[in-house]
Amino acid sequence: MTQPAEAAVATTAERAAMRRALELAAQVPARGPNPRVGCVLLGADGAVLAEGYHRGAGTPHAEVDALRRAAASHGAAAAHGATAVVTLEPCNHHGRTGPCADALLNAGVARVVHAQHDPNPVASGGAARLRAAGVDVLGGLLADEARALNATWTRSLELGRPVVTWKLAASLDGRAAAADGTSRWITGRAARQDVHRLRAGVDAVVVGTGTALADDPDLTVRHVPLTGPQPERVVVGLRDLPASSRLARAAAAGEPVTHLRTHDPHEVLETLGYREHRHVLLEGGPALAAAFWRAGLVDEVVAYVAPVLLGVGAPAVADLGIGTIADAARLDLLDVAVLQRDPADPTDTPTVRLTLRPRKER
């Protein structure tokens, strides 16, 4: 949360440095176990000594990156008496790397200005550690912007589990498949490509065994750029997949595919959270989606609705236990987009994408 009283005493140079630090942090994709963090080191005169940012798990944190660059350019004592401007409170724990609070103290930094307070109970406490050692610490500068930069990471830590986005594709009358079980393709080509954009931004893609058996999906990111490894592909349910299926073949080849033999959504997220996944895309099917919804574990819905009528067939979601309109599950609409059809393909269809959030009173 922003702390206006503290942020009001930041200097003009520190404000400019924080905005630059946010730009640096934004260069890294918003996925993976760690937040995006940028750091700018300022000399006593307010001039920039060095910049740094965190590039992903196992790499130097933003503060250490900036300190190393300052030493390389200006000598080992370059940061003595400097101000470190960081988008996230410096960490105070030993993980894949050492505590950034100690690195700043060892470098002789005199002042630290940070934006977002660290919501991770394991890593937080850096500000208190620095203050106890005599460093002038200012927190909350541009905190809202820093939180927005790491919105999913922050939300995951606050929830104590991965954030869940449920993607569904349906006909205008709410069918996910025709009466004969066919479901490729209800939505248009642009919508299918947009799903790959969603996959590229998450840590895991989850389907039930019913969908895996009916559609034999790859669940990989294709057709759009992907920075880093493919999301883990996760199948949930008790039924076996045939060895000839795409997912079974991928697992046999050593690719990141997991079969969780459970029907419990809480158990699924516990397992994925243990693997440090922050964002999960729930792609289907109707029974699994209903289980996650009934458990209160859906945080966002991305619905692709095609101007197609089927009349009968599998619904987009199974029974939610709702018997009357007064108990209807209601969502807030965040965004609407029309994904146009390919004019060169007479079989293609436009699709409307709705981005929604379940209401908190659910």
From TrEMBL:
Its EC number is 3.5.4.26, 1.1.1.193. It comes from the Bacteria. Pathway: Cofactor biosynthesis; riboflavin biosynthesis; 5-amino-6-(D-ribitylamino)uracil from GTP: step 3/4; Cofactor biosynthesis; riboflavin biosynthesis; 5-amino-6-(D-ribitylamino)uracil from GTP: step 2/4. One of its GO terms (molecular function) is 5-amino-6-(5-phosphoribosylamino)uracil reductase activity. Binds 1 zinc ion. The keyword NADP applies. Residues 12-138 form the CMP/dCMP-type deaminase domain. Its cofactor is Zn(2+). CDD domains: Riboflavin_deaminase-reductase. Keywords: Hydrolase, Metal-binding, Multifunctional enzyme, NADP, Oxidoreductase, Riboflavin biosynthesis, Zinc. The keyword NADP applies. It catalyses: 5-amino-6-(5-phospho-D-ribitylamino)uracil + NADP(+) = 5-amino-6-(5-phospho-D-ribosylamino)uracil + NADPH + H(+); 2,5-diamino-6-hydroxy-4-(5-phosphoribosylamino)-pyrimidine + H2O + H(+) = 5-amino-6-(5-phospho-D-ribosylamino)uracil + NH4(+). PANTHER family: 2,5-DIAMINO-6-RIBOSYLAMINO-4(3H)-PYRIMIDINONE 5'-PHOSPHATE REDUCTASE, DIHYDROFOLATE REDUCTASE FAMILY PROTEIN (AFU_ORTHOLOGUE AFUA_8G06820). Converts 2,5-diamino-6-(ribosylamino)-4(3h)-pyrimidinone 5'-phosphate into 5-amino-6-(ribosylamino)-2,4(1h,3h)-pyrimidinedione 5'-phosphate. In the N-terminal section; belongs to the cytidine and deoxycytidylate deaminase family. This is Riboflavin biosynthesis protein RibD. The gene is ribD.
